[in-house]
Amino acid sequence: MSDNPLSGEVSNSKLAAVFDSATAARDAAAALVAAVGLQPAQVKVIEPGEPDANIKLEPEGGGIWRTIVRAHLWLGVLGAVLGAVAFGIMMWLGVPFVARSPVAASLVTIAFGAVGGLLFGGLVSIRPDHDRYVQATHDAMDAHRTTVVVHALSHEQQSRAREFLAGRGAEVTGTL
Predict the structure, then answer these.
(1) If 0-12 CB within 10 Å is exposed, 13-18 middle and 19+ buried, where does residue 36 land?
(2) What is the pLDDT of residues 120-138, one digit of tens each?
(3) How many helices (H) and strands (E) does the chain have?
(4) Is the distance from CB of 3 to CB of 109 less than 8 angstroms?
(5) Could you tell me which residues come within 8 angstroms of residue 107 by beta carbon, excluding any fewer than 6 positions away?
(6) Which residues contact 5 (CB under 8 A, 6 or more apart)?
(7) Alpha helices for 37-144 (secondary structure H)
(8) Which residue, 17, 61, 117, 137, has most beta carbons within 10 Å?
């Protein structure tokens, strides 16, 4: 599991490196495993017409569900805590509505904080940074090009793989 408390996925750092030919992509994938020290399971080649492209792009279905639960749980609780802090500040400042109706004000403030946290949890869960990575692969397939997909275990591993693949002439797109 990753060091990110919001994520339930093993690999949070992904790359799509697009090559003009399948041979160049396969050669780069094999060399990448040896040069960067990745495990063979972390590197996949997606050719045009690949029937399982989406599974190769996002293989961690269970991890995605863990990310959804963890992100909503942690950020919902954080939002509620921030709502309680906001309520405390308003009480300390003597805001009239809060001072006259502390129970209602605390419930509303904490609830709004929790809802805000849950909304951020949803944003984290949908992983908008993956859109470019997935779209680059699908665009490459449509253009009859081949993609090397890397599921890095750290940002440092992702950076090394990015440099290596770009040095081999690939168009590289990655997640955050």
Answers:
(1) buried
(2) 999 888 777 777 878 888 8
(3) 7, 4
(4) no
(5) none
(6) 70, 74
(7) 53-57, 61-93, 96-100, 102-126, 130-142
(8) 17
Residue whose token pair is 């805590």: 81
Q: How far is CA 125 from the centre of its chain?
A: 8
For residue 60, give both structure tokens: 């961690």
CA distances from 53 to 61, 119, 147, 168 (A): 14, 30, 10, 22
Distances (CA, A) of 87 to 72, 77, 82, 91, 93: 22, 15, 9, 6, 10
Pick from 14-23, 78-87, 152-161 the range whose average pLDDT is largest: 78-87
What residues form DSSP beta bridges with 19?
Answer: 146
Residue 161 · residue 15 · CB < 8 Å: yes
**What phi and psi, each to the nearest 5 degrees, are found at residue 169?**
90, 15
SS3 state at 80:
helix
DSSP class of residue 45 equals E
Partners of 13 in the β-ladder: 152
Asked if 57 and 165 count as a contact pair (C-beta separation under 8 A), the reply is: no
Instruction: Give yes or no for a contact between 96 and 102, defined as CB atoms under 8 angstroms apart.
Output: no
CA distance 118 to 93: 27
